[in-house]
Amino acid sequence: MFPQRSKYVFYLSTRSKSLYGIHESNNAYNLVVHEFQVREALPVTVFTSREALITASWIHSTVSDFLVRDDVYNKRFFDAFYLQGPEGLAMAGDADSLLKSFGTSQVFWALSQHNTTLPDGPYFATSSGLHRAWRLYEDHTNSFVLPTIPSANDANVYEALPASGSDLYGAMQIAVPSRLFYQPTPEQPLAGYRIGVKDQYDMKGIITTFGSRSYAATYPLSNMTSGVIQHLLDKGAIVVGKTKLSVFANAWFSIAEWPDYSLPFSYLSPGASSAGSGVSLAAYDWLDITIGEDTGGSMRFPAAQNGVYGIRSTKNSTNDTATAFGPFDVASHFARDVDSFNTFGAVLYGQSGYRNYILYAREYWANINPNYTAPCEEYVQNPEAFLGVNHFKEDYFAKFGRYPYTTLNAASDPSFTPQNATLGEIGHTLQSEYQTFYPRYFPSAKEETCSAAIVVFPFNGDGGNPWYRDSNISYTVAGSAPALPGYISWNYLSVMNESPEMAVPVGTVKYQSRVSLMEEEFPATVEIQGADGCDFMLMNLVRAVAYERGLKKGVQTGSRMH
Length: 562
Known about the structure:
This protein is of the alpha+beta class. It folds into three domains: 129 residues, no CATH class; 213 residues, Amidase signature (AS) domain (Amidase signature (AS) enzymes, Alpha-Beta Complex), CATH 3.90.1300.10; 191 residues, no CATH class. Strands 13-12-16-15-17-19-18-24-25-23-20 form an eleven-stranded mixed β-sheet. α5 packs parallel to α6. The protein starts with a strand and ends in a 14-residue tail after the last helix. InterPro entries: Amidase_dom, Arp1_N, AS_sf.
């Protein structure tokens, strides 16, 4: 049933099959035992009062708070109220007058002998009982493969929601629950988080397409949920839909390379295979977190292209990741602000300290559009100041025109940071040699601070230039600045070393759009890399720097980051 109310459309969740005993009040609120008798779904606000006397000021304060905190709740739920509270619950005369001014038609009182307390929030009343309200949003960027809702009988089993949109683009509807229903706890810190999941992960009761119609047609509904997704469900997250990916999670960037399911909409390329997760989070306020996966940039490119936070996790830091390329695939997540990013990260990874070394590859930065590197350079000054990094080598070079003599272990000495690790120093890298080479110049694990250093570099699909969705892409470097012959791209450092890498939106770059013929902006992103196992250290560092240095702590949805 989809009753239309103003600009809101709601899905009637029948999961609880409520059948609560109800008292209906009529006239002077005389209590009469009564089951719900309604001809159509009646919007109802559920309240819980700690005091025995309900006053007008309390009702006004509570509904005002609901309207601010929740996008599902609106004034149509003033039609009726269901009141819960201590023994002897009553309503003051001014509260009666206030509800009449709201246009409230009915007030229901919870039976005292029923010890079940409903979560506060918006519901629909039918003859069968109370049902939680879900708001439907149109997926106008076409980022989702399908919307999902928990099944009526088991919150760990999901089903597809057959709800199509009404716009000209054939957008489907994504159902989201009220935020008022959930309160985070130590056991469920993610309670009520609305998440989208890359359609590379299995979810029990839902088809997995892997970006391929043929794959979807070959296999039945999944009979189990991927371990990383189940872990998030256990911690309280709500999966509202499965997001699009390129065929078998290959890193395809343009329209022609998404033959089965269309590329999520953006005039610029939305990034690699986790594009659905990146675009949806950048576009929709009603979505909190999205889950992706990274092989050679599948998360990092969408994070950079869409101006959101993302992290390629340490290999095996999360279990049971759906794989396309076996040993290189890792789980990842996207967020719009440092706080929710860290809250989610704390559930997935451990905690650790900081280290005051920054590795800075100037040869790589020199190949990037200076308009792109400018906000990146400005951002890097903040973690340098936060960590207390000094620039002895840079200052020495400026004065004497040469670098000072250092030992082979200079990368471990704070007086010689940031270490100037160049592409030449990491040349001729083969995977068999890589694990031996990498620790000489790049982060290694430290017990006290987790990572001995961090690596910082700009990240963009086309050398710091706008990257259109219909562009021909060169795959020689997987979308970063041209690498020298025989050298590995920066894009693969964390892949080969199995270490975490975080995408941090740091600003915007202005450009003249060939689509709108106007000046537009696209995001500038810095990548920060740490030692394996230091996933949460990177997230915590970025959050601490934002608060300590007074930086922006998040981005907004839409065509502008801020």
